[in-house]
What does this fold into?
Amino acid sequence: MAGVEIPDARRVALGIVVGQATLTAIVAAVCYLLFGPRAGLSAALGGGIGTAASLALALIAFRGGQQSPQRIARAFFVGEAAKVAVVVALFVVVLTAMEVVPAALFGAYVATFFVYWAALARALPAFGRSGSK
It folds into this structure.
């Protein structure tokens, strides 16, 4: 069985992480300017949690070069498990160690999903075209 090479998918995944980090910085700056330092920090932490989780998934799921489809699927399952673990651990730490602005924290976290969805919507048609050559 032939292996599958996924450099384009790796590039998309890391691009998502960069996009999430950029959006987090923007949301945190807006929250800081409109609602104060605690809201800005809360937004930075919330977006940072989403970004860190996506980075964990990307590093685990795309760490190999050419792999069999079974290994790719296994790497994604492990990556998703790591992503959930990162989210849970970081939210526990932030919510127990700091006094945050919940709307800013969770709003910025949810905002990172929009980067993920937009990037996937843009990338998936390109992957479909490349497979039909």
In short: The longest helix spans residues 7-35. Helices lie at 7-35, 37-61, 69-97, 102-130. The chain has a mean pLDDT of 87.
